[in-house]
Amino acid sequence: MKIRKHYLTLRRSFPDVHEEHPLEITLEELALHLDCTHRNMVLLLKRMQQEEWLTWLPKKGRGNRSTLIFHARKEDMLMEEAKELVAKQDLHSALELLQAAEHASSLREQFQVWLSGQFGFRTEVQGQRRTDILRFPLTQTIHALDPAAIHYAGESHLVNQLFDGLVRMDAKGDQILPHLAHAWDVDDSRTLWTFYLRKGVQFHHGHEMLASDVKYSLERLRRLAPRGLYSWAYAGINDITTPNETTVCIQLSERNELFLGFLTTNRASIVPADVCEAASGRMDKSPVGTGPFRLIGHEQGIWILEAFPAYFQGRGFLDRVEVWTLPENEQTELSAQKQPFQVMHNVRISDMEAQRWQQVRQSGMTTKFMTVNELKDGPLKDPFIREALNLGLNQSYLLEQLSGDVIEAASSFFLQPKQDTDRSNHVISTTAQLIEVKQLLASAGYKGDVLKLATIPQYEQDALLLQKMYAMSGILLEILLIPAEDFKGEQRMTADLLLFAVMLDEHRELRLYDMYKSMRQHAAPEVQTMLDDSLQLLRSESDPKRRMALLEQLESQLKQRHSLLFLYRKHLKTAYHPSIRGISLDSLGWVRFRDIWFT
After folding, report:
1. Chunked in runs of 10, what are the mean pLDDT values of the chain (599 residues)?
2. What values do phi and psi take at 504, rounded to 5?
């Protein structure tokens, strides 16, 4: 409230005056501090006294000084102001207010404890109507919810609630199921795919989804994201025809056995042509889809999703979901709190706390790795220096620095049997390892050339650990941070090494194909040929098991020449309170809001 701000201004004007200590002052002097008239100052003091924030003892007569006694601490007032901003769903302003305050660290800690209690399941009753709400924090910033423009896991999860595709993948990644299309055919050449759409499926704005929307969605994707995720899949579309309102024919330029899998990803979500065209082809923060929830607001970082009553697979149990995104500088602090949320993503819980929670270790995972830019002139053209780089990669050091029960060493994109990591043996092997690395570097003529390592800002911590780790071997790294949306551009070609991660979920083979396609851009000519041949075989192979064998073979070849260096993998966990029913998780552990309900 405005009166509270006036009190805070007044309180800050006298930092040396403690609460309950009298201050001798005139009304005119106070009015100067608040830049207001004598009359308004009288009214403000009266109101503040009614709130019991201060005591004002006026004395009549010119030259007589009145007595002011502050009661309310400015820290308490700041907290109340922040809580009021949260009630107005302005979380960012609340955090900014506390950030600018004196004793900001302790205030933010108190605020985060209070904020924790605001999340979870709640019910609001207005008259005869009951509204079931799930509110939870997302420690990521949402930049866009346009399927053609998303880059981060949080964005991807919300897009899954708002949009649907023609087909969908089961959580294990084993089977492709009907969705907006109830059936499909493919011709003998396996280049012409025909999809038959469900009738009566509605977009959030009430228009029926038609074949023309499907055609528009895929053609729009090619226009907006010609180099985006899975662009190799939709770049191969030669033509799209719509014989009638419920039939879509997609003609590919060549056989691609991964194309149907691509259509299960949210990148291939179906959007309404009329809404997109009215917004010049984009809908970054005003998405309209056919999904089980529709977006009704996103003020100040709070994204409000409302159940879509006309959803073609039936209305969800929840009425509303509020996703509260946190600024980058607040995310680590809040995620570290013991949060009494009903659903928590990507968490680690102590053994004692685990008794109160159901935990799911997700089948999906992320794997961090480095690739070598072999097109750039420099030390890494020498295979012995690449070998030294690989040998100097001390995974035990990285794991020790990162710590966590969900992080483990990785030597492949595929799970391997665990190896013995006895610490005493590791100390001996590390010493010998450092000697061998330095010998390799010396024999290759490495003279301390600085290698440039490119990554995205979100992986800066990993880059700094690598920089410190390689310095032990005498290998010098310079770090180049490139925004995720620009990482596939030309800037990364100035680097010697590229640090990135791949999410291995139900779309594992698509993500690996996309990663290798990207890697080709900075591979040596002979590696480009190897990648081209392997990816061609993948596209033409109809047996999923054989495709996986091809991917494992390709990985092995790249590891042998030290063009692909593995760091670690991270398994994610989702925890949920026993009061929740109907929990359904995708392989990266995000809860499907439509399925859950509470007892």
Report:
1. 85 90 91 90 93 90 83 88 78 73 71 67 80 78 88 84 93 86 97 98 97 97 88 95 98 97 95 94 89 90 91 89 70 40 42 45 74 94 93 88 75 72 44 85 90 93 94 93 85 94 86 93 95 96 94 96 93 52 40 58
2. -105, 95
Question: From CA 216, how far away is CA 321, in angstroms rounded?
Answer: 29
Retrieve residue 122's tokens: 């709640």
Q: What amino acid is encoded at 93 in this protein?
A: S
**Residue 187 burial (10 A CB sphere; 0-12, 13-18, 19+):** exposed
Burial string for 409-428 (b: 16+ CB within 10 Å, else e) reads bbeebeeeeeeeeeeeebee
Report how far residue 207's alpha carbon sits from residue 30's, in angstroms, rounded to the nearest whole number. 61
- Do residues 7 and 71 touch, judged by C-beta distance below 8 A? no
Asked if 321 and 297 count as a contact pair (C-beta separation under 8 A), the reply is no
Cα torsion 383, 490, 537, 151: sign: positive
Predicted TM-score (pTM) of this structure? 0.74
Six token digits for residue 42:
């009288």
What stretches of 132-230 show up as alpha helix (H) in DSSP? 153-162, 211-224
- In this prediction, residue 86 carries a pLDDT of 78
Q: Which pLDDT value is given to residue 399?
A: 87
What's the gap between Cα 84 and its chain centre? 28
SS (H, E, C) 479-545: EEECCHHHCCCHHHHHCCEEEEEEEECCCHHHHHHHHHHHHHCCCCHHHHHHHHHHHHHHHHCCCHH
What share of residues in the chain are helix, strand, coil (percent, to 5)? 40, 25, 35
- DSSP reduced 3-state for 454: strand
Q: How far apart are CA 85 and CA 67, in angstroms?
A: 32
Rounded distance between C-alpha atoms, residue 477 and residue 469, angstroms: 10
Give the tokens for residue 426. 């590791």
Please name the helix (run of DSSP H) or strand (run of DSSP E) that holds residue 287, with its range, or none: none
Cα separation, 371 vs 565, whole angstroms:
6
H or E stretch including 194? strand 192-197
- In this prediction, residue 337 carries a pLDDT of 40
| Distances 31 to 27, 213, 377 between C-alpha atoms, Å | 6, 63, 70
Q: Where are the beta strands (DSSP E) in 198-276?
A: 237-244, 247-252
Write out the DSSP string of 376-410: S-SGGGSHHHHHHHHHT--HHHHHHHH--TTEEE-
Give the residue from 42, 79, 82 showing the smallest Cα distance to 58: 42
Q: What pLDDT is stored for residue 357 in this prediction?
A: 43
Residue 404 gets the label, from left (phi > 0), alpha (psi -120 to 50) or beta, of left
d(CA 203, CA 406): 39
